Amino acid sequence: MVYDRKVLTRPFLTALGTPVQWVFDRTEASGLREGQYLALSQSAAQDEIDEPVAALRERYLPELERLLPLTRGAEVRDFFVTRERTATFAPTPGVGRLRPGARTKASGLYLAGAWVATGWPATMESAVRSGVGAADAVLGALGRPRPRRLFEFEEAA
Ligand SMILES: Cc1cc2nc3c(=O)[nH]c(=O)nc-3n(C[C@H](O)[C@H](O)[C@H](O)COP(=O)(O)OP(=O)(O)OC[C@H]3O[C@@H](n4cnc5c(N)ncnc54)[C@H](O)[C@@H]3O)c2cc1C
Asked: pLDDT per residue over 74-99, tens digit each?
């Protein structure tokens, strides 16, 4: 939702007892100069993923009015839906073979991303581990020492 004014005074909120799960303030990240851009993120949304935008709008705008009093007098300038069908990692047998490591055949090119072969499902943890793995590969190639703090989680595991 893009509102014509600031309606959420914190960076994000989570709610219980309502269909709303998470709301994030995306204004700065989106580069919006006027008003406020809020992203409402719904997980396990199998029942909603194919619902028309109008139905989602009808469900969520009144809920936001209930949760965020400042929305009540605000104009909704835009309302759109993105559907991330692969947000939740759901591997099939053999998928591990498709995940590359951090090192590539191209000189100076290293890969990071949740989907890289980290040994973890492609989640946020995997994303972090992949970044550390790529940094490790780069430092190794440059002959530089591994900063200990970067790899502390490996010792904890
Ligand atoms: C709706 C949703 C809910 C999720 N919920 C969870 C959860 O509860 N728990 C969990 O562990 N994981 C969750 N995930 C998965 C998790 O968000 C991802 O696994 C993780 O963020 C991937 O991290 P990443 O660094 O590989 O990629 P991203 O976080 O996707 O980062 C890639 C970045 O690259 C930028 N980019 C892309 N192309 C270019 C370009 N050409 N030039 C410059 N920049 C570019 C993108 O803008 C983006 O910022 C969720 C994902 C979604 C979509």
From this structure: 999 999 999 998 888 888 899 999 99
